Amino acid sequence: MSLPPLPDSAITVGAHADDWRRAVELAGEALARSGATEQGYAQRMIQVIEEFGAYIVIAPGLALAHARPGPDVNTDGLSVVTLDDPVVFGHPHNDPVSVVLGLAVSTPEAHVTSVAELANVFNDPEAIPALAAATDVADVQRILTLSEEEASR
Predict the structure, then answer these.
(1) 25 neighbors 5 (Cβ within 8 angstroms)
(2) What distance in Å separates the CA atoms of residue 78 and residue 38, rounded to the nearest whole number?
(3) Residue 153 pLDDT class (50, 70, 90 cuts)
(4) pLDDT grade, residue 147 (50/70/90)?
(5) What is the set of active-site residues?
(6) Which DSSP helix (H) or strand (E) runs through 113?
């Protein structure tokens, strides 16, 4: 198992978001920039949160924005957005969020395997703070690659 592709175009470092909606939009914009999704996917990710709440805040400081497979998903993809100031999503324990992952999958099976792989990566307690402190795209890719390698051992 491995993470979906994470090209440079899918990473945004030090972005500003006034609220969780904008943070999710940024993750969606990065997915669209990478070609994984169309622009409308970001709105579907927001609708998931509006409907089901802040369950996407899966660990302290980390949100995993996603939506079901649909016609606006071109291919499996991952985006990473680090925020200059953390935002509140409304999670009782894991707010505020400083790292937002965007996940797009083309099949329900890909969703399950991608979430499982991300869970393995973020079992490393240093991964989220390291991502939040990343200063450039190369830092983000290095941190995720190292965490993924650790998880596969």
Answers:
(1) no
(2) 13
(3) low
(4) confident
(5) 66
(6) helix 108-121
